[in-house]
Design goal:
This protein is 82% helix and 0% strand. The protein has 142 residues and is an all-alpha fold. Helix 1 runs parallel beside helix 3 (81-108), helix 1 (2-32) runs antiparallel to helix 4 and helix 2 (39-73) runs antiparallel to helix 3. The longest helix is centred in the middle third of the chain and has 35 residues, at 39-73. The model has no long low-confidence stretch (mean pLDDT 97).
Length: 142
């Protein structure tokens, strides 16, 4: 019974993390279109900070905690190739999280030097990683 609860909490955490990972780069796209220091820019700064600190980072931490907890409950997964592939993609997703936090800080300091196109392209990274993670977990191709 514990496994089902931990798995449910893990999935809930992942949903929240992915929603924020997909939304934050969109905010960056819109933030690029406004003048630094403008009222709209200041509003985007608040939205980006709250999204990162109140949703995205806690959801990432919870995802890792519940994921590790599941591995403690089912240690035989450590010997399976799909888990290693999934964890590689999760680490890459965590790296993207860190990059987004850095980009948010740059916007907060009015130091963004990247284009809307850059953030549109970066918005695809979490999607591609998520697709891979789901395939590794559900299909278990190796």
């Amino acid at each position: 019974m514990a496994y089902e609860w931990v798995k449910a909490l893990h999935v809930i955490s992942i949903i929240a993390w992915m929603a924020a990972m997909l939304y934050l780069p969109r905010l960056f796209v819109y933030h690029c279109a406004v003048a630094p220091g403008s009222e709209a820019s200041e509003t985007f700064k608040v939205m980006e900070r709250r999204l990162l600190r109140a949703i995205m980072t806690p959801a990432m931490i919870a995802s890792w905690v519940f994921g590790i907890w599941m591995l403690v409950l089912i240690p035989e997964w450590f010997s399976q190739g799909w888990l290693h592939a999934k964890l590689t993609f999760v680490v890459l997703l965590s790296v993207m999280h860190g990059l987004m936090a850095r980009w948010r800080r740059e916007f907060a300091e009015d130091r963004n030097s990247r284009s809307q196109r850059f953030y549109r392209v970066m918005n695809e990274g979490p999607t591609l990683l998520m697709i891979g993670i789901v395939i590794f977990v559900i299909v278990k191709p190796f």
